[in-house]
Write a structure and sequence with these properties.
There is one protein chain. By secondary structure, this protein is of the alpha+beta class. It has one domain: Roll (Lipovitellin-phosvitin complex, beta-sheet shell regions), CATH 2.30.230. Helix content is 22%, strand content 51%. The strands form two sheets. Strands 1, 3, 4, 5, 6, 7, 8, 10, 11, 12, 13, 14 and 15 form a 13-stranded antiparallel beta sheet that branches. Helix 2 runs antiparallel to helix 3 and helix 3 packs antiparallel against helix 5. 22% of the residues are buried.
């Protein structure tokens, strides 16, 4: 949910971009592009998603989780817009070097999530998570369901998908920009606790780049959050601490947090089809427990690579 968007460049934005290390575009600088949501009917794409999460608790140890999936995207035209179907074909997931339970992977690998989108690119509704949750309840032990319940339920998943769609598509659809333009503003993100975290962002249209035989706009976004909102988001970190510390478990509290991240995206402006996206996020904090204070870092990297073909 975008609360404000500024097109005027100011010294605050300049300092933020300097801190982020954004490069100044060359060659295409000043060229005008317009974003129009118009994916061709019958579009099919294979989306390969690679995820790595690292949770470093200093002297308490480190947890590493990795995942890879292949998702078939199909886009069809409807009377009132578009129907986008995301069908999970393959799924691999490991944590602490062990494969995720096969029943869990099998249930997720059958997921088919449908986005109903109007002709302007606005997301109207999301279908499929309720049936996915029903399959998980039948196939996965209750103990595992309980451990992932905060982040894997229909409402939370829909909320995250809506936020992602808003940031990827709705924020740009219908806009005309010049290569080199910079936007800044404030937005918010809904947490599993149903609270909202406010964050500040800078988006820069950095250049043009070849992608799948087409020409894509390079969109780079850098963001940072307010610390108060982060406290509720990171409360669940203590659960991870208790998992990596052998009994007796250490109960601690967060005393300092900071978060920053960046997203790099390649998008066709005339269709708004995305060809590549990389998200990097780092959360740094200080935990305090009976043994004193120690630093902890949570880092996450996600890449989405799309290969398009037509029916």
């Amino acid at each position: 949910m975008v609360e404000s968007k500024q097109f005027l460049f100011n010294w605050g934005v300049l300092l933020f971009i300097f801190w982020c290390g954004v490069s100044v575009p060359t060659g295409a600088f000043g060229q005008t592009v317009r974003f129009v949501f118009a994916p061709p009917a019958g579009t099919r794409a294979m989306d390969t998603v690679v995820v790595e999460k690292r949770k470093d608790f200093g002297p308490l140890g480190e947890r590493v989780e990795r995942g890879k999936s292949k998702v078939l995207l199909t886009i069809d035209k409807t009377d009132d817009g578009y129907r986008l179907v995301n069908e999970v074909l393959e799924l691999e997931a490991t944590g602490k070097g062990r494969q995720a339970p096969s029943a869990f992977q099998e249930a997720l690998s059958k997921a088919k999530i449908v986005f109903r989108v109007d002709s302007s690119g606005k997301l109207r509704r999301i279908e499929g998570y309720e049936s996915l949750m029903a399959r998980l309840k039948e196939a996965v032990p209750q103990a595992l369901l309980k451990s992932v319940g905060k982040v894997m339920n229909a409402d939370v998943m829909k909320s995250r998908d809506r936020a992602d769609w808003s940031g990827r598509i709705e924020a740009f659809a219908g806009e005309t920009v010049k290569i080199g333009d910079t936007w800044s503003g404030v937005s918010s993100y809904r947490l599993p606790s149903r609270e909202f975290v406010k964050y500040y962002f800078v988006t820069r249209f950095s250049g043009l780049e070849a992608c799948g035989g087409r020409e894509c706009v390079v969109i780079e976004t850098y963001y940072d959050t307010d610390l108060d909102g982060l406290m509720s988001l990171l409360g669940e970190v203590m659960e991870d601490v208790s998992r990596v510390v052998p009994p007796p478990r250490i109960r601690g509290r967060l005393t300092r947090t900071s978060m920053k991240g960046r997203v790099r995206r390649l998008m066709e402006p005339e269709t708004m089809l995305i060809h590549f996206e990389k998200l990097e996020r780092v959360i740094e904090m200080t935990l305090e427990g009976p043994g004193g204070k120690f630093p902890a870092t949570l880092s996450e990297t996600r890449t989405y690579s799309f290969v398009y073909g037509q029916n």
